[in-house]
DNA sequence: AGCTCATATGAACATTTGTTCATATATTTT
DNA sequence: AAAATATATGAACAAATGTTCATATGAGCT
């Protein structure tokens, strides 16, 4: 019953890689197929440097893989695990935001959303 | 092309909720079953305030759900989507760290690790 | 050889995030 | 009623993170 530390750190790194809008835009593009840095940079309208930094982050946790062709570097989603995680996460947030919307008719507040409280103010 | 902004923000929030060691410890405990705040606080040896803050984060993205019983609040994993995502992520990082280890046998302790590979730690 | 193109990386800065402490709210008990 | 218990939340500060700018590496071309 070992030390869970390494597992925790690796999970942390993995999820953290996916917890940024730019990196999510990258992986969503990569779900459509392999792309090199320029293509990503152009599609997202963001600098090459920024894209490269984010790709380094996605590489480090094994979310994407690399194929070099001459001076081009093509990136793609690492494996089916990652694809599954992404598609399930998309399903989850889609369902969850629907459930939020149906509640927000009542609470016009933004930000915290619904926070599952049936604690009526008496 | 539809506006992907809301989807991106929700994915970002969701993954970000899972990208912290303490919150991961919480959800891993919750995978074993429903627990209230004190139980989580005691199991992890961390303050009630800290656990509550992190639970708020996990609630806001729909990763956990809540059941109030008197003055106790029981938390559990929100649904099978989230359970699946967690178990696949665990599989992914397990495989990935194995593949890293098998490469590090070659690069002995000292040098820069593997060449232009995806081994990069910051 | 030089030059250009594609990508990677380091440093600096501004923003964000996690943790702690103090306090608020809600429920039960005395 | 007050006190005790369980949880939530706000403010403040340290640490981590994303972005930009400048520069480095490396491959193809003339």
From TrEMBL, chains A, B:
Residue stretches making up the HTH arsR-type domain: 3-97
UniProt xrefs under SUPFAM superfamilies: Winged helix' DNA-binding domain
Gene3D superfamilies attached to this UniProt entry: Winged helix-like DNA-binding domain superfamily/Winged helix DNA-binding domain
Classification via Pfam families: HTH_5
A GO term for molecular function: DNA binding
InterPro entries registered for this protein in UniProt: ArsR-like_HTH, HTH_ArsR_DNA-bd_dom, HTH_MetalResp_TranReg, WH-like_DNA-bd_sf, WH_DNA-bd_sf
CDD domains for the chain: HTH_ARSR (cd00090)
PROSITE patterns associated with the record: HTH_ARSR_2
Keywords of this entry: DNA-binding, Transcription, Transcription regulation
NCBIfam families linked to this entry: HTH_metalloreg (NF033788)
PANTHER family reported in the protein's UniProt record: TRANSCRIPTIONAL REGULATOR, TRANSCRIPTIONAL REGULATOR, ARSR FAMILY
This protein's name: ArsR family transcriptional regulator
């Amino acid at each position: 019953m070992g030390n869970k530390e390494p597992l925790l750190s690796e999970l942390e790194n993995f999820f953290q890689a996916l917890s940024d809008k730019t990196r999510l835009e990258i992986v969503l593009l990569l779900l459509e197929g392999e792309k090199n840095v320029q293509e990503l940079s152009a599609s997202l309208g963001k600098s090459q440097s920024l894209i490269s930094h984010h790709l380094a982050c996605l590489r480090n946790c094994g979310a994407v893989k690399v194929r070099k062709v001459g001076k081009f570097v093509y990136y793609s989603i690492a494996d089916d695990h990652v694809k599954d995680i992404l598609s399930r996460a998309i399903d989850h947030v889609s369902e969850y935001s629907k459930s939020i919307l149906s509640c927000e008719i009542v609470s016009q507040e933004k930000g915290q959303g619904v926070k599952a409280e049936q604690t009526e103010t008496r």
